[in-house]
Amino acid sequence: MDTGFAKNRYHDAPRAADFTIDQAWETYSAAEHDRWDRLFRRQREVTKGRACQAALDAMNALELSPSGIPHMGRLSDRLEVMTGWRVVPVAELVPDDIFFDHLANRRFPAGAFIRPEAEFDYLQEPDIFHDIFGHVPMLANPVFADFMEAYGKGGQRAMRLGQLHNLARLYWYTVEFGLIQEADGLRIYGAGILSSPQETVFALEDASPNRIGFDVQRLMRTKYIIDDFQQTYFVIDSFDALLEACYRDFGDVYAEVKGASDLEAHEIAPEDRVITRGTLDYFKAGGRKG
Ligand code: HBI
Ligand code: FE
Fold it and tell me: Beta 86-90 vs 210-213: how paired, if at all?
């Protein structure tokens, strides 16, 4: 499958019909293990006081550590007894229908490759650090684990209905870039933020982005940016609230969204529960390209 990204060393690995490959954990070089350790140490520090409690607890429970690239089979054995989820190795992005089928069966497809040194700070394609450090801890939370399975099933249905772009926005603004209101303040659960040292700070502490209360219909109308920080972050009150809002038939929401206009990533809508009205200064100055 052409993903539009550079070919990593797993690109030509033999793959099953479900696009899974052999992680070949013994083939990782010392340099690759060392890169994981440096990524891990840095991100463990910057997420202290910023990652949600569920993610911090799971990192310990899953024994994620700076001791080299995790073996997905052994990590899955620890995760499976918690929520029934396993982490399966893939070479790169897989087709949407394959991706949803994995999620619907409590399998998280994780890239087996680790980013090259030249992309240490940022890469667009999900590598093993983004997938395992960013996504896997949240799969140890029973409620979020249910949400992710429901998302997989919803994704298969959305494809049939031609509503995938709306559901992809829901995924983007929750699973990848979601914030949660905890007793001590806003915290991060989105994997795209948790795996990025810069965005971990920006999402919580910069005056530029909007921070708005979560609303499924509103999310499905909202465009997103893929190559810079988010202009708006959406805040859930709890994982129960997220699951409750999503664990239902989206048919009526799709119908409502179909008639409504899309919102730009920076826009604030009249009905929004505004937590922080952003200055957008970072974006006006040109953003990551600036
Ligand atoms: N494939 N390996 C992998 N990881 C993803 O996160 C992923 C994917 N395929 C499609 C996809 N994400 C998104 O387009 C989903 O919204 C479908
Ligand atoms: Fe991701």
Answer: unpaired
Q: Is the shortest distance between the CB of 99 and ligand 1 below 6 Å? A: yes
Residue 153: which CATH number?
A: 1.10.800.10
Model pLDDT, residue 290: 44
Q: Confirm whether 10 is domain-assigned.
A: no
Does 233 reside within a domain?
yes
Rounded CA separation 58/69 (Å): 17
Which of 99, 172, 220 for mutating ligand 1's site (highest number of atoms within 8 Å of CB)?
99
Q: Which residues lie near ion ligand 2 (Cβ < 5 Å)?
A: 126, 191
Q: Does residue 235's CB lie within 6 angstroms of at least one atom of ligand 1?
A: no
- β-bridge partners, 188: 51, 179
Rounded to whole angstroms, the Cα distance separating 285 from 282 reads 5
Query: pLDDT tens-digit profile of 209-246?
Result: 999 999 999 999 999 999 999 999 999 999 999 999 98
- Which residue type, as a one-letter code, is found at position 51? A
Considering every ligand atom shown, identify the ligand nearest to the alpha carbon of residue 156 and give its number: 1
Domain interval for residue 256: 15-284
**Which atom of ligand 1 sits closest to the CA of residue 135?**
6
Give me the count of residues in the chain.
290
Question: What is the model's pLDDT at position 289?
Answer: 55
The domain total for the chain is 1
**279 within domain boundaries:** yes
Could you say which ligand is closest to the alpha carbon of residue 194? 2
Q: Which amino acid is at 56?
A: L
**What average pLDDT values come out for the chain (290 residues) when binned by 10 residues?**
89 98 98 98 98 98 97 98 98 96 98 97 94 98 97 92 92 98 98 97 98 96 95 98 88 83 97 98 85
